[in-house]
Amino acid sequence: MQITDVRVRRIEKDGKMKAIVSITLDNEFVIHDIKVIEGEKGLFIAMPSRKAADGEYRDIAHPINSETRDMIQKAILDKYESTALESESV
Fold first, then answer.
1. Cα-flanking dihedrals φ and ψ of residue 67, to 5°?
2. Which helix (H) or strand (E) holds 66?
3. Which residues contact 82 (CB under 8 A, 6 or more apart)?
4. Are strands 29-39 and 42-46 parallel, antiparallel or unpaired?
5. Do the beta carbons of residue 47 and residue 59 sit within 8 Å?
6. What are the Cα distances from residue 19, in Å, to 13, 54, 64, 90?
7. Most exposed residue of 5, 20, 81, 89, measured as fewest CB within 10 angstroms of its CB?
């Protein structure tokens, strides 16, 4: 599985959520609404989720193992950082 596209929509409002991201896998499958969140230990991603009947949020789509999650997070955060550099240079 290859991440073939990453699209970042930065959030300009103050708050912990910094961006909403869509990724494309193998030029064939897209996952929308991945969030870039600023936490106490730095940036991390939150997979798309939905509020369940019990009030808890459940991920709609998520990686099965930590290696895949790390790969997705690295690709997203690298793209997020590069878009930050592009907007600073304008």
1. -65, -45
2. helix 66-89
3. none
4. antiparallel
5. yes
6. 10, 27, 23, 19
7. 89
The residue whose two tokens read 């996952």 is: 31
Nearest Cα to 63, choosing from 14, 25, 19? Answer: 25
Q: Give the residues across from 19 on adjacent strands.
A: 10, 36
Paired tokens of 55: 């009030």
- pLDDT one-digit tens code per residue, 47-71: 999 999 999 999 999 999 999 999 9
| Rounded Cα gap, residues 21 and 29, in angstroms | 14
Q: Does the global pTM surpass 0.85? A: yes
Task: Please say whether the beta carbons of 48 and 37 come within 8 A.
Answer: no
